[in-house]
Amino acid sequence: MYRFETKCIQSGYEPENGQPRTLPIYQSTTYKYDDAAALGKLFDLEADGHMYTRISNPTVAAVEAKIADLEGGVGAMLTSSGQAASFMAVFNICSQGQNFISMNNIYGGTINLFSVTLARMGIEVRYARDDMTDEEMESLFDENTRLVFGETVANPALTVLDIERMADLAHRHGVPLIVDNTFTTPYLCNPFKFGADIVTHSTSKYMDGHANVLGGCIVDGGTFDWEKGGKFPELSEADESYHGVVYTKQFGKAAFITKARVQLMRDFGCTPQPMAAYLLNLGLETMALRVQRHSENALKVAQYLQQQEKVLWVNYPLLEGSKYYDLAVKYLPKGASGVVSFGVKGGREAAMALMNKLRLAQIVVHVADARTCVLHPASTTHRQLTDAQLEASGIGPEFIRFSVGIENVEDIIADLQQALDQI
Ligand SMILES: *Cc1c(COP(=O)(O)O)cnc(C)c1O
User: Fold this and answer.
1) In the prediction, which pLDDT does 45 show?
2) Model pLDDT, residue 40
3) 29, 122: one domain
4) Which of 79, 80, 83, 212 has most ligand 1 atoms within 8 Å of CB, for mutation?
5) Residue partners of 12: CB distance under 8 A and separation at least 6
6) What is the pLDDT of residue 46?
7) Do 259 and 299 lie in a common domain?
């Protein structure tokens, strides 16, 4: 068993004698077979192999194997975006008339997916706050509750999920915990070690790491007992849309991820291109190095900001005094990613003035890549909310999301300094 940094480079693809050393791009939609019966076996899921790139592809499969290895899961499926991964992870085990519980401080795009689009499918989301007592959380469950969802470090709230607590709560009710591990990556946290059952990612962030390629991933921890209590018949009973296959019988620990692929990916088709998987793999090779530097730089930037007279508050989970410091020490001992948020005195106007003065840190609708970038949620992603609504969601008009890159941290701090001097 190699260590993490080695797996980032070596896992997923091992060339045989005379084969290309780096992962080849298999730019083909189809695969050729010698005899008709062999293909029948593939369709019956009785043999391994690729039949059509909407379902699987060798380049994509190599990257899936690498991410599964990095997370410590039994299997993974890449998707065309993080949104597709969040959707399919939930929809795999949640149908019309059922409900699930999600933390309320998650990524805004996921909130929209859960609150609006899943509602149109007859699926109800019930939001939990991390300051709720166990009793208050328990009261959200009923017999139709299918799963619990949260983000390890939430975007952009930067709250830290108490994974063990939420896993215990979910398991007491016989349902799995799904964790979006986008901001932390498996370099900083392996949610499976703390009881999570399924992990999702937007690989568009630190995994790719260069703002080059959209993508998502679902990883199956292989630990949840889908047969217990007959609560998940979609996994433990025959799937009529797939020749009566019983996923738990035929695929054991990999039941969840196999169903997601052969049923949902087959039907929704949000498949990544082989080229996208290839680019993602390049990012993964340096992920450990990058995320380590992102985290070191971010802590220094947070400490710098804390000293500044014009700065009202700074939020970074590993900053001493942070509300989430103890959870961060427990779950994120190696660092808390590159994202820092802060507020400047003077509210919305001062925040926007500061951003306009930044030079190295550029204004983009992205986060978590090699280049330092900055976003003002109140005037962009959360634009539709009033100042009062913004305050209620913890994202005030002065809130700035600062994504610290892997440039020299002295340059990043100098940029902030010259901008602060001008407001
Ligand atoms: C960006 C993001 C997503 C959505 O991913 P896309 O790749 O943009 O579709 C989901 N979750 C989190 C935490 C994100 O930051």
Assistant:
1) 83
2) 84
3) yes
4) 83
5) 23, 62, 63, 64, 65, 66, 69, 281
6) 84
7) no
CA of 202 to the centre of ligand 1 (A): 4
pLDDT score at 41: 85
- Strand 145-151 with 75-79, pairing: unpaired
CA angle 219, 223, 227 (to 5 degrees): 110
Q: Which residues pair with 400 in a beta bridge?
A: 342
177/230 same-domain check: yes
Closest by Cα among 300, 256, 289 to 370? 289
Same domain, 117 and 218: yes
Nearest residue (by CA) to ligand 1, atom 5, is: 82
Nearest-angstrom CA–CA distance, 318 and 301:
12
Q: Is the pTM of this model over 0.70?
A: yes
Centre of ligand 1 from the C-alpha of residue 83, in Å: 6
Note the pLDDT of residue 396. Answer: 85
| 151 CA: nearest ligand 1 atom | 13
User: What's the CATH code of the domain at 71?
Assistant: 3.40.640.10
Low-confidence ranges of the chain (pLDDT < 70): 392-393
pLDDT attached to residue 384 = 73
Note whether 245 and 159 are same-domain residues. yes
Q: Are residues 262 and 295 in the same domain?
A: no
Residue in the block written with tokens 């001493």: 320
| Residue with CA nearest ligand 1 atom 15 | 155
Kindly state whether residues 274 and 294 are assigned to the same domain: no
Q: What domain range includes position 356?
A: 288-421
Which one of 258, 282, 306 terminates a domain?
Answer: 282
DSSP 355-386: HHH-SSSEE-S--SSSS-EEE-GGGTTTTTS-
